[in-house]
Design brief:
The protein is of the alpha+beta class. Helices cover 31% and strands 27% of the residues. The radius of gyration is 20 Å and the shape is elongated.
């Protein structure tokens, strides 16, 4: 067994359960309908750039508003080496950076959590839900 002086690889190199960025994003997307009583969904659109880069754009979608979609963030990575990623926030925050690198799945998860819990994303969700409530037909008033 190698000792700290003779080991070349860190203990975390033996992780075998790692997920790709799109799989992590799909997990986040799957939670939105349950949290909004199926009024809102999240979609991920992927595009390829010269078979070198892949961009995954995460959007919140309101099916009841002609599928209006609002992009929230994009994750970019190389075609074969999916980490590190470059995460870019499409919804700008007043403070903090809007793009950063995530070297691992755990860092990417933390970035996605931070973006989705931000005040601007909450405002988008509240706005879409308000517009959906406005579009609902009013029930007949009782006489």
């Amino acid at each position: 067994m190698p000792t700290a002086e003779t080991a070349f690889w860190g203990d975390d190199v033996l992780i075998t359960e790692a997920l790709t960025p799109i799989a992590v994003m799909r997990q986040a997307a799957a939670q939105l309908p349950n949290r909004t009583k199926n009024l809102l969904e999240a979609e991920i659109e992927s595009s390829h750039d010269n078979n070198v880069w892949v961009d995954h754009t995460f959007s919140i979608v309101a099916p009841g508003l002609d599928r209006y979609a609002c992009p929230i963030f994009t994750v970019r990575h190389k075609e074969m080496l999916v980490y590190p990623t470059i995460t870019h926030r499409a919804v700008m925050e007043e403070e903090g950076e809007n793009s950063w690198y995530d070297d691992t799945e755990e860092e990417l998860r933390a970035s996605i959590r931070r973006i989705l819990a931000s005040g601007h994303v909450k405002a988008i969700i509240y706005s879409l839900l308000a517009k959906l409530n406005e579009a609902k037909p009013k029930s007949a008033s009782k006489s």
